[in-house]
Amino acid sequence: MTVDSAQVESVKRDGGDDGTACPQPLVSVIVPAFNVSGFIKEALDSAFAQTFKDYEVIVVNDGSPDSQELERVLEPYMQRIVYIRQENRGLSGARNSAVRVARGRFIALLDADDVWLSNYLEAQTALMLADSNLDVLYPDAQVFGDAPEAGQRFMEMCPSEGDVTFESLVRQECNVMICAMARRETVLRVGLFDESLRSSEDFDLWLRIVKMGGRIAYHREVLARYRKRRGSLSSDPVWMCRHILMVLEKAERNLELKPQERETLTQAMARFRAMQRFHEGKRAFFERDAKGAIEGLSDANAFLKSRKISLMLMLLRFAPRLMLRAYDMRDRHVFGASTKY
Question: Are 62 and 88 within 8 A, CB to CB?
Fold first, then answer.
């Protein structure tokens, strides 16, 4: 079924193009699509290969510039998916459009460049059904793609330890994997994804869910493959720090925080500001801007107080060319790429 974003409400009410009722699935799988025509087939094949069958798949074309190629790739799936076309509104807007038409009790988030194992829905749904107080559940995943982290598990890179609380999320002691399953009514109750955010929108949602009394949990079974790509926005540490800070600053403004939560938030904002300056300093170094590199790293180290950064600053001041050669040699041997370009 194909709809435009203006038809979203009528589709939700009527259940189909001809107004006839459709069987209500237990799970709605949500797949945003923007410049992913080279990846989405693998994602959809993994969704349709699930051992659990009581689900629908909603694909949202978020004003993608590769729409013609995307629809060519989607053509064999059109009778099996709900396909929404809309002007570009970002990941939040794409997911919100899908949540609004979703008919399942649960929504399962599948990014178009990721892949599920065949038992993802079966395992996740069983755990959600077994605990009526559970609002969001996320598994572990295997990292793949063209990034250095390929082959690692998500929870090796981004650990989850202890209960998922506002403070553990802010301190990054718990990191919610994007291949999560959530109760649709919970996502609606807390106000959906924030469409003013163009990154870290999921982090913002998890914070609001736990602050409004929702429960988030995890388990360590690998149920997905999480793609890391060089050159993507999520691989840009300056971009990520900036947007995480936006989420934290929003939480400081809008959420009713206990004193300890506010203190934790303040410390986290200081840390992410320092990390942003650190990555800005590294970027300036690779762009041969020694002055910008020294300023960024100095600002960062006022908070981080790292001996390694102090050594980097000393080399930048007295032997910048030697430092660049050392980084270039490391990158050639470890990553197969040159720092110089």
Answer: yes
pLDDT at 341: 34
User: How many angstroms separate the CA atoms of 201 and 194, rounded?
Assistant: 6
Residue pointed to by tokens 């929504």:
107
List Cα–Cα distances, 67 to 49, 63, 111, 157, 195, in angstroms.
25, 7, 17, 34, 21
Which residues lie closer than 8 Å to 271 by C-beta, 6 or more apart? 303
Bridge partners, residue 27, by sequence: 55, 106
Read off the pLDDT of residues 73-89 as tens digits, 9 standing for 90 and up.
999 999 999 999 999 99
pLDDT over 70 at 6, yes or no? no
Among candidates 204, 247, 223, which has minimal Cα distance to 95? Answer: 204
Amino acid in the structure at residue 34: F
Residue 15: both structure tokens together: 């259940």
Listed in sequence order, the DSSP H helices in 75-136 are: 90-101, 120-130
Cβ 215 vs Cβ 135: under 8 Å: yes
Assign 234 to helix, strand or coil. Answer: helix
Average pLDDT over residues 4-29: 60
Helix axes 259-286, 237-254, angle to 10 degrees: 160
Average pLDDT, the chain: 89
Report the distance separating Cα 113 and Cα 106, nearest Å: 21
pLDDT tens column, 163-214:
999 999 999 999 999 999 999 999 999 999 999 998 999 999 999 999 999 9
pLDDT at 326: 64
**Distance between CA 290 and CA 305 in Å, rounded?**
20
Q: Which alpha helices (H) appear in 173-258, and where do they start and end?
A: 184-189, 201-211, 237-254
**CA dihedral for 163, 253, 187, 235, sign (positive or negative):** negative
